[in-house]
Structures are given as structure tokens and as C-alpha cells.
Input
Amino acid sequence: MIAKPTIGAHAFSKDGPSRSWVRGVSQLHSNFEEKALAVFQPDILVGTQYLATYRRRFYLDPERVLMLAVLEDAVVCFQEYVNARCKRKRLLHEEAEQWILEEDSSYLFSFGNICDTLGFEASYLRQGLLRWKRIAVKAIPATDQRKSVAG
Output
């Protein structure tokens, strides 16, 4: 019968205190093997940490969910219909652009109030959308621009 080497846990080896918790691990390769053996160590979690993995990562109140939906709809209308030829779609783009550019924050669902409530910088978002529009309009061939303006 062949004797199998045994690996047991102890604090000291023949050469003095061992940096690894498993006997038989050489000191030259201890970092790599310690990392490999760490897979078998139990994870220590508090109950709230464990349950947090099953909760929603981005929790919003229903009012904020509505505000996010309004903002998302405005950005989608602004971007999707920037080059629209259809009168209804062009109107959606223009209304979204007007709402985004409006500085008045006297009503609850203004662009500025929604951005503030959701934690976005309104002026930064405004500048980014306008920069995106300039690039998107430049990308249209000249003949298509004349048709969309005249149409």
C-alpha cells in the first residue's frame, strides 16, 4: 500500500513559523497557494450583506421612477427623431428639445427639477445632448437636410 502524504493544519513547520496555514506548502510558492486554498475558506457575511444580494441595486421611490421615465422618454424622442421627416415625429423632437432647454424650474416635472431629484447635473446633460445633436445633424447628407427642412 502506498502512503499518501497528509496535509494538516498547524502553525509551525520544521523551519520555524509557517506563513501558510497548511503544512507542506513551500515558502517560495506560498502566496499563490494561499490564494488557491482561500477558495475553501468560509465566507463571513453579515445577514444584511447576504440579503442585499437579492435586493434591487438601484432603489427608487415611485415618484422618482416616474421622473426617470419622463426623462428617458424625452431623451429618446430627442435622439430618435432628430432627423425625422414625419411631421408628428419632428414635433416630438422639437417638444423634447424645448423641454430640455427650458431653464424655468417652477413646476415639479421640469428638466432641471427632474435632474436635481435624480442626482444628475442638468447643465452637463443639456450640453451633452446638444453636442450629440450637432454631430448627428452634421452626419446627415446635404440632400437629406434640404428635404427634412422643406418637408
Q: What stands out?
A: Helices lie at 30-37, 47-52, 62-80, 87-101, 111-118, 122-138, 142-150. The longest strand covers residues 12-13.
